[in-house]
User: Which sequence fits this backbone?
């Protein structure tokens, strides 16, 4: 069997295989297309792609000519996307006409059109938009094949179909020689304040780290079939769908669909179909699938599985045990991999077959990584204890800078505790030395593994002209891990009603993306503030979970606000 990528479409009847030989040809062709559009070493290319082969080809084509890809998850809104295009000053954008996710249709090109219009209004012109004609070649969930591409408006002189350009391109492209420290790609991640951060990874260090962690953490062997269900739009997709597997010449599965279509056993039927040996997914997916009857799992032959991975957020022991027992039949290793966009690859993880597992613990550092727990005063905690999770020494895959903003890089990650890389997470070390990541210690939320800042949601809510002030906190959620609980203070005379709620939710969807939609929005005539005017989120977090154990409220300017908010929690809270 040749090394290949198995492409599994949204619909189970839609699948194909791409060998590495063919992949190289496609990459060279598209690299030549990019060159013909004037793209050269160091230029940024914006990418807004679904989980299709052209997504992988685009990233590798950029790498081949030394261009810096900046892929934005195709669930972000046009506003978020335009902000990112402008920040990295991309002149070329690569996308697809649209995609089906289960029975939902996403009009990607139209989102890109809106994003490009917004860029133009702000003085930045995207010169070329290359569009994969995808909808016409896949089975739609209704079973009717339609060539939707015909209906996509294409702007003369700017927009081109991928297929037309590829048809004329040469399949040989000599690679650009790169220095180890030359940039490979950038990927935006939310910052706890203000604009998203363009995390920059380099060619040598990132690749060696992606390759090494992939090989050891998944124990990949040449006859294996590896499958990571993440989206290519996140760092997990970059490192463990594209670069890590490719650098190991791994055979892997690229999946365009969702776990619930056409039925709730899709993951397990794909594992059986390709005899997957390593399966890598997120706790939020596991928790969503746990809700269904065991038979959805049991009806499939999962005996090929050897290693099961988890990524994106802490995995609760209940989900871990379900994964271990029902999916892994108590014979697979589970690797709970802790890492971040910034770390490039796994930094804390058990090694399969070598590390005795504890459900919910990311265990120990990967080779060369030196984790440390610090107390508030910056003192290292030895032995058992809990504190800030930081790293004492760099490793090859650590990001090198934030695009165009090295100062922010230093202040965000290295200034709180000089001499250490600060993850923004807390962790506990148990008596056996195992590390347990406890979650974010800054104002960040992790909704289904999507990281976002409370500040960015608050600023969107206050854009609404009926809202005077907003405060957002994370509330635990049984499937998503965390969800958004928002407190809003309306301006005088504004009415807090269903209409306002709908408008606020819509605004967040439009400005950030559907995944950021708040679960709860509470009317807060006043917010609990200190005398200096600082909102006490600690108290809001208690109100969100209806825990009256709020602790010391003596620093509040008006402590009656707290009781009022407890009394008026909405019915869906
Ligand atoms: P991102 O940069 O979007 O990949 O998000 C990174 C964040 O996700 C980390 O800072 C953690 O808060 C969380 N995270 C990722 N993997 C794990 C894990 N295995 N256990 C606990 N938290 C995790």
Assistant:
């Amino acid at each position: 069997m040749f090394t290949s990528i198995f492409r599994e479409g949204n619909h189970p009847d839609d699948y194909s295989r791409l060998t590495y030989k063919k992949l190289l040809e496609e990459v060279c062709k598209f690299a030549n297309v990019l060159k013909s559009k004037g793209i050269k070493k160091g230029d940024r290319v914006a990418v807004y792609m679904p989980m299709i082969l052209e997504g992988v080809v685009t990233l590798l084509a950029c790498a081949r000519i030394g261009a810096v890809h900046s892929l934005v998850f195709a669930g972000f809104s046009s506003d978020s996307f335009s902000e990112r295009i402008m920040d990295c000053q991309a002149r070329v954008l690569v996308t697809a006409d649209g995609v089906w996710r289960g029975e939902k249709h996403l009009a990607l090109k139209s989102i890109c059109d809106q994003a490009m219009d917004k860029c133009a209004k702000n003085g930045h012109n995207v010169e070329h938009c290359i569009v994969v004609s995808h909808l016409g070649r896949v089975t739609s969930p209704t079973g009717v094949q339609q060539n939707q591409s015909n209906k996509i408006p294409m702007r003369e002189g700017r927009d081109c179909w991928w297929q037309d350009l590829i048809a004329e391109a040469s399949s040989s492209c000599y690679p650009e020689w790169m220095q180890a420290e030359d940039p490979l790609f950038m990927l935006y991640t939310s910052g706890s304040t203000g604009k998203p951060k363009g995390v920059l990874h380099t060619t040598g260090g990132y690749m060696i780290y992606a390759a090494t962690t992939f090989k050891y953490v998944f124990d990949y062997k040449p006859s294996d079939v590896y499958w990571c269900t993440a989206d290519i739009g996140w760092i997990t997709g970059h490192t463990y769908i594209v670069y890590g597997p490719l650098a190991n010449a791994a055979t892997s599965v690229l999946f365009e669909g969702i776990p619930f279509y056409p039925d709730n056993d899709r993951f397990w039927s794909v594992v059986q179909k390709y005899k997957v040996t390593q399966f890598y997914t997120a706790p939020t997916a596991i928790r969503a699938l746990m809700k269904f009857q065991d038979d959805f799992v049991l009806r499939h032959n999962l005996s090929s599985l050897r290693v099961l991975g988890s990524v994106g957020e802490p995995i609760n022991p209940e989900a871990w045990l379900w994964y271990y027992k029902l999916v892994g039949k108590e014979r697979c290793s589970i690797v709970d991999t802790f890492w971040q966009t910034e770390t490039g690859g796994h930094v804390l993880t058990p090694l399969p077959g070598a590390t005795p597992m504890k459900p919910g613990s990311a265990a120990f550092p990967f080779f060369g990584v030196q984790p440390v727990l610090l107390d508030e005063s910056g003192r290292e905690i030895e032995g058992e204890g809990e504190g800030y999770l930081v790293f004492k020494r760099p490793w090859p895959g650590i990001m090198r800078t934030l695009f165009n903003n090295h100062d922010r890089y230093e202040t965000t990650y290295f200034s709180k505790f000089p001499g250490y890389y600060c993850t923004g997470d807390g962790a506990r070390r148990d008596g056996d030395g195992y590390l347990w990541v406890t979650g974010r210690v800054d104002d960040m939320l992790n909704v289904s593994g999507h990281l976002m800042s409370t500040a960015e949601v608050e600023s969107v809510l206050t854009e609404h002209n009926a809202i005077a002030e907003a405060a957002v906190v994370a509330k635990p959620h049984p499937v998503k891990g965390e969800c958004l609980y928002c407190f809003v203070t309306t301006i005088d005379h504004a009415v807090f009603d269903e209409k306002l709620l709908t408008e606020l939710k819509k605004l967040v969807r439009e400005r950030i993306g559907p995944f950021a939609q708040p679960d709860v929005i509470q009317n807060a005539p006043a917010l609990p503030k200190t005398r200096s005017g600082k909102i006490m989120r600690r108290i809001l977090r208690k109100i969100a979970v209806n825990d009256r154990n709020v602790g010391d409220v003596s620093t509040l300017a008006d402590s009656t606000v707290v009781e009022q908010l407890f009394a008026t929690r909405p019915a869906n809270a």
